[in-house]
Design a protein that fits this description.
By secondary structure, the protein is α+β, with helices and mostly antiparallel strands. Helices cover about 40% and strands about 20% of the residues. Strands 3-2-5-6-8-7 form a six-stranded mixed β-sheet, with helices on one face. The protein has a two-stranded antiparallel sheet with strand order 1-4. A two-stranded antiparallel sheet has the order 9-10.
Length: about 270
């Protein structure tokens, strides 16, 4: 226990490797995530995985990628290797930490091995993998947890298992289109902008919760405050949100229309 408590969770001293399999007949491209402060390291790792997934045409959401990336803290980020496979629709997270003894409980809410130092960087309430499993279950995907070869765990998330996924892959919906819509001040043409998974998630939180501050959004999404501040600034410049009298942000009519169209896309 003393060794566990003495570990410095504020900084990740190891390199993570993201292996991107463009073609299974060839060696993967490898992207290295350099040592960094923990919050920055987790964000960079999730961002790189998400970027590579999208470049291959994958549809696993950023939130799921982020949740599993955060789970590496339990392994102290020991020998982290992430493989992006199957055109971005399968992602395998591998480490050489202590492993996961009870794999069934790991995907049930409320079971956690998080210690207090870890909870400065993750929620630590046993909700991460259960949330990923719930999303994948309703999206015809799956999550598997296995022992690594000698030590550690391997968590694989995939969206290859259902008819809905196949339909979406064969009939992709464009994320950019134009059409006139009536908004206060007159009719205007709304152009559906290309949005990252994080931007779409934040817009959806505004649609569900109403006015939110930076700290509110950070608590809801688990993203670092610095990242939320940058994203909100970008969204305000784009006209998606505006500042209220109490210094919080809220969707503009334009932002609300973008959210409505995102919901249409996600339900097709």
């Amino acid at each position: 226990m003393a060794e566990r408590e003495s570990f410095d969770y504020s900084y990740v001293p190891t390199i993570a490797r993201v292996a991107v399999y463009d073609d299974m007949k060839m060696a993967p491209r490898v992207i290295e995530i350099e040592p960094a402060p923990t919050a920055e390291y987790i964000e960079k790792l999730a961002d790189v995985i998400d970027e590579q997934k999208r470049s291959l045409g994958g549809s696993i959401p950023y939130s799921a990628i982020r949740e599993v990336s955060e789970n590496f803290i339990h392994a102290r980020f020991t020998e982290v290797v992430v493989s992006v496979l199957d055109k971005g629709n399968t992602i395998r997270f591998c480490d050489q930490g202590p492993g996961i003894k009870d794999k069934e409980k790991a995907t049930l809410p409320g079971f956690t091995s998080a210690q207090e130092p870890m909870k400065r960087y993750i929620r630590g309430v046993g909700s991460g993998l259960p949330l990923v499993k719930e999303y994948l279950d309703v999206s015809h995907g799956k999550i598997t947890i296995e022992d690594n070869i000698e030590a550690g765990a391997v968590v694989t998330i995939s969206l290859n298992g259902g008819a809905d996924t196949d339909v979406a892959r064969n009939n992709p919906t464009p994320l950019s289109f134009e059409s006139p819509v009536s908004l206060p001040g007159g009719e205007r043409t709304v152009v559906m902008p290309p949005l990252s998974d994080r931007e779409a998630l934040i817009l959806n939180e505004f649609a569900e919760e109403g006015a939110l501050g930076v700290s509110d959004m950070a608590q809801l999404t688990g993203f670092p405050v610095s990242s939320i501040h940058t994203l909100m600034k970008k969204m305000q410049e784009a006209g998606f949100i505006e500042t209220t009298r109490n210094k919080k942000r809220i969707l503009t009519d334009y932002g609300a229309e973008i959210c409505r169209r995102l919901q249409i896309i996600n339900t097709r």
